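Q: Structure tokens for this one, please.
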Amino acid sequence: MDRLKKSHFAFLGLPERFEVDERALQQVYLRVQAAVHPDRHAQSGATEHRIAMQLATLANEAYRTLLDPGRRAAYLCELHGVAVNAETHTAMAPAFLMQQMAWREALEEARAHRDRDALADLGRVLCDDRARLLEELAAAIDRDADFERAADAVRRWMFIDKFGSEVAAAEEGMSA
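A: Here is the predicted structure, written as tokens:
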């Protein structure tokens, strides 16, 4: 039962860092999942089977959380006592707010003109910003242990991730 109280990193036996080797994460997840999968415990008693189900659920949640950079960063912030609170903490730097407005205008203009090239350009810009944010998150968390700065970067990541989905949907809509 003690395994249920560990952090996702400890549960999977990984170092508590933002930068994660995704291949190693997948390998350890598959190993843990194979060991705790409820089917392996089908002949066990009800208690053992229930615990196996809880461990398998925790393995799935740990894997999904640690695989996604935004979720992983938010999780690390919360482990260190800094809640991201994206729903209520909406204050952003003026430069980021201006960038958001420019991106929204570019998206609306590209939609209005059915301009696939403009959407592709916007997608590339978002990809570049994601790469910069990944570097910022790695530095804030792994190097500086500055979880307040990391939480701010997570909120920006969440916006960019959501906006990226809108751009992808617009591209898809033009293909249909």
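A few notes: DSSP finds seven helices and no strands in the chain. The domain at 94-175 is CATH 1.20.1280.20 (Monooxygenase).
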